């Protein structure tokens, strides 16, 4: 059976539907006024993947042999927003340098500066400058659509299923331009502080080559004056050690206010029983979980922990908006991701494979010995462990799918159904097991042993290492660092803290200043952080008779804005998670939309929170325009701007550097602050 060919597989749409079942009720559709983000809550039994086995057996198979379901991966282009949102306060007739022009110029610089080459700039942004090349292909790559048949034994990497993988993007023309400015190698030191002190930054970057600022940009969701002061006071080593023990860090005010999100504290049975009451209050559990995640990213002092939670939510991805997410996804966040984010990845993967959220999301609940669904078995190999280039074959996928039969969900809890489990010897990537017991505990233990095996496989060590290095170092991390991280992962049996300490103790990390561009979510969260937004409601806020608190409503507003920008926590509908490289996010529309939102925050227009007045961002504003721009840049992006960028920002206010100004920058302070937040110094981390 395992040696027969896989029938051709159909491409899926944006939620994974392949046209065979549940044709319309759920999934992604074209945006409409009632569904501005294109999302419609699915009515299908388990949203995201076909729920029932394919009715076709493999060619030549015995009539009563297993039937298989194996939807192919999704080819999906990078998010592109057609058309540019309006910029508030466009060119006033009396001003020779308009605000739109200055912002676009600053943003265009941000789009190219990380790679040090114009090739890295998105076609949409290049088009704003009149570049004829804007009409060209954004990536310059050709990929297969995954619809061809895969003979058993063929390496999956020869017919890629998920083209959104980071390496696919970085193989583009823009990716090649970025590679030229990335660190190429390095060495390990006795600790992070020693590595920082001994590493010389040689890459081209507009960012200040200050190791404290570099650490704050990479190990948090954005530097704040408080974080920078903490690192300088404690020292690099002590600050990292403290961040690696998040349980010892007191919760922030905002984290205490999460009690205002009623669904967070409810168990799975309570969420099921109280669904109607929660809906009446507007407290959708799967959305409140995202709201809470954003609150932690903005206000938690456990910043490195939150960065790692975000990392694992992309690596071991379960979408928030799958049908069942309203009941199970918060539990997955708490019991799987957050419990193990800085602990053991093998334990995380074992826990995930017994959690109702993953079992329903990838239809394992429907898999049985006589009708095998391969979704979870495939993603365990392709996405969650060894990776598509990790050495497994289609035969391995089928063997794993047979072994994993019997796992499912009943009455909201994980169950193992021995009557659905395939019994018989299996061999997967060198793992062998007799799998000959009818005892549910022994059969279940065999699956755990397999999951642990693939989580500790050398290919998994390298895949995790590559992903962490891409997140923390550069879009094209040096092989020397990836090898070192993989070695640490293997030596420590998949424990993550030692891997992070190896990363921070490596010169490659400290040499990579300015080598990462913020994705839309990271940009907006960093903006909230640098502006010092408070989680308490503004005195001028009128909550009316709304049943939800200002804090809860404000978080939902951030969440909805990020949906517009194309990235929010756990938002990717398919199991591959969001790409973590710049060229996947080159959208001029999203960039301008982000600038507009930054302007709203500077002006304090989101009254569910409290904002510092823009004229009070700098405690003692200088009396001249040039000096004021310097002070405001130091406050918002922790460094001065280049002479060209400073001139552009002065042009927004139509003032020379020597002009006398008051605390309001003669009425232009909001526009000036927003322009600084459009600079490359704020877009790059």
From TrEMBL:
<feature type="compositionally biased region" description="Polar residues">
    <location>
        <begin position="152"/>
        <end position="161"/>
    </location>
</feature>
<feature type="compositionally biased region" description="Low complexity">
    <location>
        <begin position="139"/>
        <end position="149"/>
    </location>
</feature>
<protein>
    <submittedName>
        <fullName>Uncharacterized conserved protein, DUF1800 family</fullName>
    </submittedName>
</protein>
<feature type="compositionally biased region" description="Basic and acidic residues">
    <location>
        <begin position="10"/>
        <end position="21"/>
    </location>
</feature>
<feature type="region of interest" description="Disordered">
    <location>
        <begin position="139"/>
        <end position="161"/>
    </location>
</feature>
<dbReference type="Pfam" id="PF08811">
    <property type="entry name" value="DUF1800"/>
</dbReference>
<feature type="region of interest" description="Disordered">
    <location>
        <begin position="1"/>
        <end position="96"/>
    </location>
</feature>
<dbReference type="InterPro" id="IPR014917">
    <property type="entry name" value="DUF1800"/>
</dbReference>
